[in-house]
Amino acid sequence: SMLHDVEGLMQVTAQEKGLELLIETDPSVPAWVMADATRVRQILFNLISNALKFTTRGRVHVRIDTLPQRPGIVRIEVSDTGMGMDAETLAQ
Fold first, then answer.
1. Average pLDDT for consecutive 10-residue bins of the chain (92 residues)?
2. Is the dihedral of CA 92, 67, 11, 6 positive or negative?
3. Cα dihedral sign for 35, 36, 38, 40?
4. Which H/E stretch holds residue 22?
5. Facing residues of 22 across strands?
6. Exposure b/e, 7-31, CB count within 10 A at least 16 = b
7. What's the rounded Cα separation, in Å, for the pair 69 and 47?
8. Which residues is 37 bridged to in the sheet?
9. ∠57-63-69 over CA atoms, to 5°?
10. Is 28 helix (H, G, I), strand (E, B) or coil?
11. Cβ partners under 8 Å of residue 49, min gap 6
12. Where do the DSSP E strands lie in 26-69?
């Protein structure tokens, strides 16, 4: 439900910019995870917000899955079609 809440808020921004926001949850992800929901929500919001901010066209893709080599560990990956970071920023 937390993921759907974040998605609902961020879809508005994506639509205003003409971007596609795709959130994909792998079936391997359990229905609930023991974590600090406030912090996870904040992290998701910040990652998606930044991706939307720096993407002018295309999409932002959020993928949530588990690590095959580490059962019980959930991975959140955010990718976008934005311009990316320059070499100087990456070095920091």
1. 89 95 92 89 94 94 92 90 83 82
2. negative
3. negative
4. strand 20-25
5. 61
6. beebeeebeeeebebebeeeeeeee
7. 25
8. none
9. 145
10. coil
11. 10, 13
12. 59-67
Q: What is the CA radius of gyration of the chain?
A: 14
- Write the CA distances from 41 to 3, 45, 70, 91, integer angstroms: 8, 6, 23, 27
Please name which of 24, 3, 21, 2 lies closest in space to residue 12, comparing C-alpha atoms. 21
pTM: 0.84
Per-residue tokens: 5: 């809440």
Within 10 Å of residue 51's Cβ, how many Cβ atoms?
Answer: 22
Query: What is the H or E stretch that residue 87 is in?
Result: helix 87-91
